[in-house]
Design goal:
Elements: H1 14-26, E1 51-55, E2 58-62, E3 66-68, E4 70-73, E5 81-82, E6 87-88, E7 95-97, E8 100-106, H2 113-132, E9 139-140, E10 151-153, E11 155-159, E12 163-165, E13 169-172, E14 179-183, E15 187-189, E16 195-198, E17 206-210, E18 214-216, E19 221-228, E20 232-234, E21 239-246, E22 249-253, E23 256-258, E24 268-269, E25 275-276, H3 278-288, H4 290-301
Parallel strand pairs: 1-4, 1-21, 2-5, 2-22, 3-8, 3-23, 4-8, 9-11, 10-13, 11-14, 12-15, 13-16, 14-17, 15-18, 17-19, 18-20, 19-21, 20-22, 21-23
Antiparallel strand pairs: 6-7, 7-8, 24-25
């Protein structure tokens, strides 16, 4: 961990310096103001953020995998999505799978899916480059690449080789804390080990930029968005709370993958300002009766995402 003094800015104005001195003399703890290097901004995923899994080379699964959120492949076509038992939608814009609580998109589906996937992949690549290009890391070569057993506060961290998590690692920070991990080699978490979040930290605010392959070993629990230059492999029973955005292939084996614990990325607007999950929507649909709402549902059912937020 980085010492608290590392968070202090290099310069203070006279008023802040005087206040700091008074508080120090009185023995009152002083919170860090936050050096500009600590003011880490999240990585903008753009349209890639619509997907919990996005791959340029294919998504394969064996066993009983459970995915909450949309998945997609491009430029490769739907033949590279295997093990899902896909059923193409009425207008051919997406598929459904019993393993996916969401929709499955591929480059060979009907318009506008191909163009949207091209944009999403472009944004995925830009997000990777953005994360890789961040400057002024809080620490380099933390743990000599072995971060298991550490408690890591928010910030930017950089390694010139592989990163291994052989025992549980804790990421501690509030709900607004951002982590970016720049890894020039591979990322591996051992079987049964966990990336644990504390203090309100959220998986959506964690970005693992990995130049080499990423492997989540059997029954590991991992939190964060994986921006992989190459492949991402989830071995048997591993759990990912976040996203797998790979510039090659994603391989699954009886895994649980979801954007955030409790979140459903393809939720639709419910009553009032509530967000309704797909499962809740289906129950509501059956309870209301399809004849009363069939017309609007036909429009919703064949839309890739409703509504679609603008890219930022």
């Amino acid at each position: 961990m980085v010492s608290r003094s590392a968070h202090l800015p290099k310069t203070f104005n006279k008023a802040s310096t005087a206040l700091f001195a008074i508080l120090f003399v009185l023995g009152i703890p002083v919170l860090a103001y936050g050096h500009p290097a600590d003011a880490v901004r999240p990585v903008n995923l753009g349209r890639a953020g619509h997907y919990v899994i996005l791959s340029k080379a294919g998504i394969t699964t064996t066993g009983v995998t459970a995915i909450v959120g949309h998945i997609g492949v491009s430029p490769i076509d739907s033949t590279a999505i295997t093990g899902f038992g896909l059923k193409l939608s009425r207008f051919g814009r997406f598929s459904r799978s019993t393993l996916v609580t969401g929709k499955v998109f591929a480059a060979d589906y009907a318009d506008p899916t191909p163009s949207r996937l091209i944009t999403a992949v472009l944004h995925m690549e830009r997000a990777y480059d953005n994360a890789a290009g961040r400057k002024n890391p809080k620490a380099t070569e933390l743990g000599n690449g072995e971060i298991g057993g550490l408690v890591i506060r928010h910030g930017l961290y950089k390694w010139s080789s592989n990163v291994t998590i052989s025992t549980n690692v804790i990421l501690r920070g509030d709900e607004n804390a951002i982590w970016i991990f720049q890894i020039a080699g591979t990322l591996n978490i051992s079987s049964g080990k966990k990336v644990i979040l504390r203090g309100g930290a959220q998986a959506k605010n964690i970005f693992w930029q990995v130049a080499g392959a990423t492997t989540l070993a059997t029954t590991a629990v991992f939190n964060g968005n994986i921006l992989g230059k190459t492949g991402i492999v989830l071995q048997t029973g591993a759990t990912l709370n976040g996203r797998a955005l790979a510039q090659t292939a994603v391989t699954l084996d009886a895994n649980a993958v979801r954007e955030e614990p409790g979140a459903v990325s393809n939720s639709i607007q419910g009553k009032g300002d509530e967000r309704m999950s797909e499962g809740d929507f289906r129950a509501w649909f059956e309870s209301i009766g399809k004849d009363q709402i069939l017309a609007p549902i036909r429009q919703l059912a064949d839309s890739p995402w409703i509504p679609e937020p603008p890219a930022r």
